Each structure stands twice: as structure tokens, then as C-alpha cells.
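Office hours follow-up: a student asked to see two folded examples consecutively, so here they are.
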Amino acid sequence: MGKHSSVLFRARDYLHPKYWPMWFTFGALRLAALLPYRSALALGRLLGRLLSLLSRSRHQVIDTNLVRCFPEKSATELKSMRTAFFRNLGISLMEVAMCWWWSDARLKPLVEIRGREHLDSVIASGRGAILLTGHYTSLEIGGRLLTLFMPLQGMYRTQRNAMFDSYLYSRRNSYLADIVSRKNSVRLVKGIRRQVPTWYAPDQDFKRERNVFAPFMGIATATITASSRLAQAANAAMLPYYPERKQDGSGYILHIDPPLENFPSGDEIADATAINQSIEKWVREFPENYMWMHQRFRTRPPGEPPFYP
């Protein structure tokens, strides 16, 4: 399994008053985990309203992203999309509680998989499988639900709050087959070659990494080229994957699409475009579920003005 860069969670390590707000948060989530599913969703929607009020400083980033990505939408429609995003963000916090404290037996009735045959075919062929996804608000619960059906390898970034970082790692460690630092490409490749499906979301602005500009939501977007090299090194297929939160509140659908064709192609821009298009497909279908708080378009092509203040 390997050792995390921080010590696995031990309560006595985090008794300092600076961690008390995080203790309160964990306690509230633990109580939320006692709720029935639909009640948890309702509480999440209420929490989303509160988050919207408390996150006014983030509205400008969200609104900038929405205006740029959906120029055809009216101001009223865009405001409605922002409201829906915050509802889903609140629900995602309730889903964290489910990920951490719900049993497999309690989770399994909530989920179905569509497209599992595409993953099975890749594994049967002897290749590794990378489940290509984006930063959707349903990302965390989607990964937990996948582990009900298969071993899953995940990637992590160290969190700023040491207590949250340690606890997040320890909880994910309880259900993932392995958790690999995004900086440890050797270990990541080894897991993929062992045919452990790997949860992979490259849709963030990593300005210190090698990027090319490829279209995403009609915008030239800095996109890492590491995805192509990872697939090449691991002899892996890249299968688009999306965790849908059902609109009727009855659970989830995990969508697995056929592998990207001719990937990697040897053309970094073509590969980055294929990656972005696969994520964009689901963003356009379920825009309220994308993580619009991220400054996805922070890095601009030379000579182009910044999107964000």
C-alpha cells in the first residue's frame, strides 16, 4: 500500500486548538452519516444554500467560468446554474460522510453501472485501464461506489490542513486498493500494469507541469500532456467515466464509455483535445455537477489577458 507523506490519522496528534474547527466538521459529518439517504440529500441542499452565502468571494470565479463556457445562456439561466452548483456542492459533503462511514451493504442498492463491458473487455485483452473523469461534485462518492464492484487505485494531492490530509488519506485507504501521490508516476504505472483500474482526473490548471493548449468548452485551455505519457508507459486504455447523481434522488449511475480511440496518438494536442472533449461531454449534459469554483482557465495563451482578477 505504501506510506503517505503524513502520518496516518491518530486523534492524539491533533488536539491543538487550531484543529478544533476540523473536529467539529468531522463530528457533524459523522452525525450526517446516520441520516437516511434522501434526508441526507435534503440536508445537503440546505447546506449548499449556506455555502453560497458564505462563499461570496468565489462567486466571481464561478460566474466567470459559466459566462465563458455558456455564452449562449441568459443572465437568469447562468444564475440558476450557479445556484444548482451550490446545491450539488452541499450534497457532495453529505456524500463524503457516506463514503467514510456507510457500509458496502448500505451503499450498493443506490448504484448501477452502465458500460462495465467496456472495462471488462480492456482487462480481458491484457491491458491496463485508466478511468478518465473530471472534477465533478460527485467525484468522491463515485470512487467509493466503484470499489463495490472492483479494486480501484486512486491518486491524491497533499492537503494544506494536516489533520484533514491525514484523515482523508486514512479513510480512502480503507476502501481503495492503493492511493498514489500524483508525483509518484512509477508506482502509479505499476498499479495500472497490474490491471488495477485507476481513477484519474487531469482537468485542473497545473501551470508548473508540461501543458499544451487544447479546446475545452470552446476555450483554449492549458491541459497537461502527462495523460498521454501515462497511458503509453502503462500500456493502458483511457476510458471516459462519469458518476451521475440521479435527478430523482434515488441514487447513482456510474457511466463507463468505450476507450478513447487511437490514444495516445503521438500528437500531444490531439490527445489533450480528446481528453478535454470526453470531460466536456458530461459537463454539457450535467453542468450543475462540475466544480466551477476551480480557476480552470487561469493559464492563458501568450498575449491573452487573464480571465480572473
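And the second, which I mentioned at the end of office hours:
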Amino acid sequence: MKPLITKINKILISRFGVPKRNKAETDPVDALIATILSQNTTDKNSYKAYKNLKTNFKNWNEVASAKQKMIEQNIRVGGLAKQKAKSIKTILNELLKQKGKVTLDYLKKLPNDDVISELIQFNGVGVKTASCVLLFSLQRNVCPVDTHVHRTANRIGLIKTKSPDKTFELLNKNLPAGTAHSFHTNLIKLGRDICKSAKPLCTICPLLEICTYEGKNMLPISKLTKNDFLLLDNV
């Protein structure tokens, strides 16, 4: 599997480029809250919700002591405000209770599996959210698996799994060093722009020749809709 991941990664980079990323570790609490806010919404709206919290509260301690309704008001733009506000407030207060302050810095010394085990104990945190903290905050070579990564990895033929968590397990057992960030980010772009759930644009897919998906949509470019042509301008 490693050689195939390496090949796919190189093809996706040639199509989409090398994704930008922070070169140093960032605060894991920031990353955890930002990832929770990103669930079931757009990047634009989750960023607005995150900025609202960072702008309207002095620090995470103040968010922890705020009424849940106040947190909801600040993150409403990202959707599922009640659910996310409850999770955020619970996590922050649990950290205060356990550590005496809002911090996840202790995770930096732990191996990947232990970081995931620690984080998924919190309400609203699953394997995907925990692995995002590993990749985007702690700079680990870990590939989070959302619906796009799960779908594209299975369609391409990298794996045959029925759940994102199983996909995560198998991918990360075989992930070549230094590939996680570009592989994860570009697979998401592929899933959003080309390898769509209902109508994949297979004729413009850079992985067409190695993809094993039996339900390929080989509609000629001349038959694509106006919206499909708009996507062509962005890939």
C-alpha cells in the first residue's frame, strides 16, 4: 500500500500543489476547538465561529466560565451551535478540573495512539477530531479520515472498508513518512471538487488511470453541466 499512497500523493500534488501548512506546533486546545467547530459546516463558516470566540473572549478560561447560550451566540454561524457549545464548554471545564488550567500541552510527549485515547474521552471528540489535533497542531504524520478521504480512498482502491475509523486505521498503518498533510488535504480537495459522492467527474480526475471504482462517470466533457465547467476552472 505504501508505494501506491506515494504514487497517489505525487499525482495529487502535481494537480493541486503542495498544501500550505504551519511549520511549527500550534496550541492543541486551539486546534481541538477549531476542529469541533468545523464539523458539518464549511471552512468559511467554521473560521468565522472560531474567530468570534477568540475575539469576544479573553481566553479559553473565560469561555469555560461563560453561559452556554453566550457560546452558542458566538458560534451560531457554524451551525449545530447548541451541540458544539455544550461540547466546548464541557471539554474546557473538564481540563480545568483535571489539570488546574485549560491546557493540552501534556499531549506533546505522548505517542499518537495515546493522544487519540486521551482526546476521545471528551464529549464530542471522535477519532477524526483527535487525529486533526495530531496533524495540524502536533505536526505528526497522521492522516485524519473524513467522509471525503474515506470515499476517495475506497473508490481509488487503496482499501476496502465500511467505516472512516477502519479507513483511518489501515491508512495510517501504511502511511509513508512526511506524506500525511499533503495526502489528507489533497484527497479532501479531490473529494469535494471531482470525486463527488453522487456524480464523480471521472473524466477530469488525475487518478482516473489507477482508480478501480466500478461506478465511474465517464460522461464526456461536452455533456458536463454549467456547474461542472465552473469546477473545471478550479482544478
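Two things to take away from it. The chain has two domains: 2-12+145-232, 28-137. The chain has twelve helices and no strands.
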